[in-house]
TrEMBL record:
<keyword id="KW-0479">Metal-binding</keyword>
<dbReference type="InterPro" id="IPR013341">
    <property type="entry name" value="Mandelate_racemase_N_dom"/>
</dbReference>
<dbReference type="InterPro" id="IPR036849">
    <property type="entry name" value="Enolase-like_C_sf"/>
</dbReference>
<dbReference type="Pfam" id="PF13378">
    <property type="entry name" value="MR_MLE_C"/>
</dbReference>
<dbReference type="InterPro" id="IPR013342">
    <property type="entry name" value="Mandelate_racemase_C"/>
</dbReference>
<dbReference type="Pfam" id="PF02746">
    <property type="entry name" value="MR_MLE_N"/>
</dbReference>
<feature type="domain" description="Mandelate racemase/muconate lactonizing enzyme C-terminal">
    <location>
        <begin position="141"/>
        <end position="237"/>
    </location>
</feature>
<dbReference type="InterPro" id="IPR029017">
    <property type="entry name" value="Enolase-like_N"/>
</dbReference>
<keyword id="KW-0460">Magnesium</keyword>
<dbReference type="InterPro" id="IPR046945">
    <property type="entry name" value="RHMD-like"/>
</dbReference>
<dbReference type="InterPro" id="IPR029065">
    <property type="entry name" value="Enolase_C-like"/>
</dbReference>
<protein>
    <submittedName>
        <fullName>Mandelate racemase family protein</fullName>
    </submittedName>
</protein>
Length: 361
């Protein structure tokens, strides 16, 4: 089998509604934008897809770097091609959200060629997993408590906060939520990189007292040493390396310096499915969890294949709360059965078959 075409299909996407934000000072929902499908075609008739919200950037990188590298190659040589993309990254410094797209499309082809969903091709570990409700940022403590009640009523067994990025307000919120839901509901907190070390310590001590399950990205992850200092000062488990460059290589630094209680893994920010699985196996060697970051169909496959992940992340952007379609009334997400990744429904939803042409130059 050979790759015969490397196309990017651009598609206009409307602004996300209702709009949401992550924390004060940090944009959240996407405005109207141009998305892009990376489409790899083969001489055996199998097509692999991967999607990015940054279609124009994807088209440029595909034109200058990816197409010349991939044409004529065997798509089942995923490991070789994964390393080749890393080689290109040395001169291109690809954005994290672009880096793994080739790998995702190659896994899609492999699953279709084998007649198996990707989670089965990865080995398979489970057929269902609980989903936690991952909030956007709401206006008041009272609204957060109302949202939490709705999430629990809808079947979500656990809740993760994205709050304001104001240490004193966030402390009050985290304590209030624990008191409101009681001790039996697992709670997590994500700082969206809003703090320096001093405020991260201050907040982390409160999270420890409130028995939060994990403390996620209070600081930018440029400095593994800063996280080492944080780990020395707080008892709440730190889950690290969500957005740091270098995939498994950089994750290893966080583990080696003692700052990681658990790590993040994902296809979108850690080098595709291959990179995500490397991180999961690395963490497993240290008996650590590798929690899959973000929802969506690719991460559903990862959740079914990674033994040391415990939850699917289901985003709750608005109040009133609507349960994500993939999550059932018992708060579970189930494994798909479609060969490959199963992007075809999303492909149709974006309107591509209606006449948009592939980007080629």
């Amino acid at each position: 089998m050979k790759i015969t075409a490397v196309d990017v299909v651009l598609c206009a996407q409307p602004a996300v509604t209702p709009a949401f934000r992550w924390r004060d000072g940090l944009p959240g929902s996407e405005p109207a934008h141009t998305g892009g499908w990376l489409v790899l075609s083969t001489d055996d008739g199998h097509t692999g897809y991967a999607y990015s919200h940054r279609g124009v950037i994807l088209a440029d990188i595909a034109d200058r770097r990816l197409r010349p590298e991939l044409l004529g190659e065997d798509p089942l040589q995923r490991e070789w091609l994964w390393h080749r993309v890393w080689e290109l990254d040395r001169i291109e410094e690809m954005p994290l959200y672009i880096h793994g797209l080739v790998d995702v499309a190659l896994w899609d082809i492999a699953g279709k060629a084998a007649g198996l969903p990707v989670h089965r091709l990865l080995g398979g570990y489970r057929t269902a997993i609980p989903a936690y409700a991952s909030t956007s940022t709401f206006a008041t403590v009272r609204e957060y408590l109302d949202v939490a009640d709705q999430c629990l009523e809808l079947g979500y067994p656990a809740i993760k906060l994205h709050a304001w990025g104001d240490v004193d307000r966030d402390i009050a919120l985290c304590a209030a939520l624990r008191e409101h839901v009681g001790d039996s509901v697992p709670l997590m907190y994500d700082g969206s990189a809003g703090f320096d070390l001093l405020d991260s310590i201050k907040l982390g001590r409160v999270l420890s007292e409130a028995r939060y399950l994990w403390y996620e990205e209070p600081m930018r992850e440029f400095s593994a040493t800063a996280y080492q200092r944080l780990a020395e000062k707080v008892d709440v488990p730190l889950i690290v390396a969500e957005t740091s460059d270098g995939a498994h290589m950089n994750t290893a630094d966080f583990i080696a310096n003692g700052s990681a209680t658990a790590v993040r893994t994902s296809a979108g920010l850690r080098g595709g499915i291959t990179g995500a699985m490397r991180i999961a196996h690395l963490a497993d060697a240290f008996r650590m969890r590798a929690e899959v970051h973000g929802g969506g169909i690719v991460h559903t496959h990862l959740c079914m294949a990674v033994p040391n992940t415990t939850y699917y992340e289901s985003f709750v952007p608005a109040n009133p709360v609507t349960r994500e379609e993939a999550v059932d009334a018992n708060g579970l997400v189930h494994a798909g059965t479609t060969p490959g990744i199963g992007y075809e429904a999303e492909w149709e939803r974006t309107g591509v078959p209606a006449g948009l042409e592939p980007y080629t130059s």
